[in-house]
From TrEMBL:
UniProt pathway annotation: Cell wall biogenesis; lipoteichoic acid biosynthesis
Cellular compartment(s): Cell membrane
Protein name in UniProt: Teichoic acid D-alanyltransferase
Pfam family, one: MBOAT
Function: O-acyltransferase that catalyzes D-alanylation of both teichoic acid and lipoteichoic acid (LTA). D-alanylation of LTA plays an important role in modulating the properties of the cell wall in Gram-positive bacteria, influencing the net charge of the cell wall. Catalyzes D-alanylation from DltC carrier protein.
Gene of this entry: dltB
Keywords for the protein's UniProt record, in alphabetical order: Acyltransferase, Cell membrane, Membrane, Transferase, Transmembrane, Transmembrane helix
PANTHER family, alphabetized: ACYLTRANSFERASE, TEICHOIC ACID D-ALANYLTRANSFERASE
Family label: Belongs to the membrane-bound acyltransferase family.
Length: 403
């Protein structure tokens, strides 16, 4: 059963969480029950399929890799060993993403399981922060629970080991009742987003636009589909994120938020500070900033504009490849890199010309409208249907990518 896929899943989840909520009301974290609960729902999700073996094998492989690198890091810190560790960590994900290209007849890899991208980001983050000396040790029990933390394993958010470990080792929060209330609120908000708004957009807008596109393909139907798909993508994905965050809160863990009113962003940088935040911050911290630092340390360039642009192209390009080795995902990544580069150029242009744009509600509204439409053009690319001549395939493509 896919996590958060239907109301019956929430019935089972609610019943399973009752003993934990009671324990928390008495100030007990009851870690033994949390582990049993995690195993039970992982089995509910993956049991009876080959995915359960892929999930277990992935965990064993990554745990051994990280413990080996932790042991090595205490003695030395060679760059080539770090690079090998990172490449080995992402190797299962590369195989899973590359299988559809290598074997189109059987696109599903035996190494794949729901959420492999998110747990891969977790493991790579641990390796990088171990290299930096921010993580001194990685206890196996804490790491395995962090890796397999079931509320977020399928849809994120992407947590950081240091933050999670601090909560895991700390006593139960004194304001658990507040956390519990927020958790319930986020779950019900997720129901609104996912099972009502996204469902209605899919049934009413996308379905009708697919019929119209098949019978009378036009730029109008393409534009309508662009907006409908972008809204569907947000409410569907944000709904799943809210489910994961809400359940985590009820379990006593304050997971980072994933969305913060992204369609009110005033510019493209502001958008990426609001949209899928744990992913964008991960690429910012572990890709863009490190590429910039690497270029400066190597002395390849002192041109900060060039360095920033290379960081955008690298991080957003990799984000596109991560979504899938398909042209529209890759173009989507570089499209956003281009928007970020163009926005920086616009800021430099204004500064050089000493332009002062009024900071009032009309200027802010205009910037939101411009950003909104640029973002939705990206969603059109992401959907894989920018050519109205092939829009009869619309309804088949209007779904979240397989993360």
């Amino acid at each position: 059963m896919a996590p958060y896929s239907d109301p019956f899943y929430f019935v089972l989840l609610g019943i399973a969480l009752i003993p934990l909520v009671i324990a928390h009301s008495f100030g007990k974290k009851w870690m033994g029950y949390q582990v049993v609960l995690t195993i039970a729902f992982l089995w509910l999700t993956f049991g009876g399929t080959v995915s359960i073996y892929a999930l277990l094998a992935f965990g064993v492989f990554e745990t051994l890799l990280i413990k080996a690198y932790e042991h090595y890091r205490k003695k030395s810190n060679a760059t080539w060993v770090f690079v090998i560790a990172v490449l080995l960590s992402i190797f299962p994900l590369v195989i899973v993403k590359g299988t559809p290209l290598l074997n189109p007849a059987h696109p599903e890899s035996i190494l794949g399981f729901l959420g492999i991208s998110y747990v891969t980001f977790k493991t790579v983050g641990v390796i990088i922060e171990t290299r930096d000396g921010l993580i001194k040790d990685v206890p196996i029990r804490e790491f395995v629970y962090f890796l397999y933390f079931y509320p977020t394993i399928s849809s994120g958010p992407i947590d950081r080991f240091r933050r999670f470990r601090k909560e895991l080792e700390a006593p139960l929060r004194a304001d658990y009742d507040v956390l519990f209330g927020k958790g319930l609120f986020y779950i019900f908000l997720g129901f609104l987003y996912n099972f009502i708004i996204a469902h209605e957009i899919d049934n009413l807008a996308l379905h009708r636009l697919a019929i119209m596109a098949t019978l009378h393909p036009s730029w109008l139907t393409m534009i309508g589909s662009m907006y409908a798909y972008g809204l569907y993508l947000f409410f569907n994905f944000a709904g799943y994120s809210l489910f994961a965050i809400g359940v985590s809160y009820i379990m006593g863990y304050e997971m980072p938020m994933n969305f913060n009113k992204p369609f009110l962003a005033k510019n493209i940088k502001d958008f990426w500070n609001r949209w899928h935040m744990t992913l964008s911050f991960w690429f910012r911290d572990f890709v863009a900033m490190r590429v910039a630092k690497w270029i400066m340390v190597k002395g390849w360039s002192r041109n900060m504009v060039l360095i920033a642009n290379v960081g955008y192209l690298t991080s957003m390009g990799l984000m596109g490849f991560w979504h899938g080795l398909t042209w529209y995902y890759i173009v989507y990544g570089f499209y956003h890199a281009g928007l970020l580069i163009a926005y920086d150029a616009w800021l430099r242009f204004k500064k050089k010309r000493k332009w002062k744009i009024p900071d009032n509600r009309w200027a802010r509204a205009l910037s939101i409208v411009i950003t909104f439409n640029l973002v939705f053009i990206g969603f059109l690319i992401f959907s894989g249907i920018p050519n109205y001549a092939i829009m009869h395939a619309l309804h088949m493509r209007m779904q979240l990518p397989n993360f």
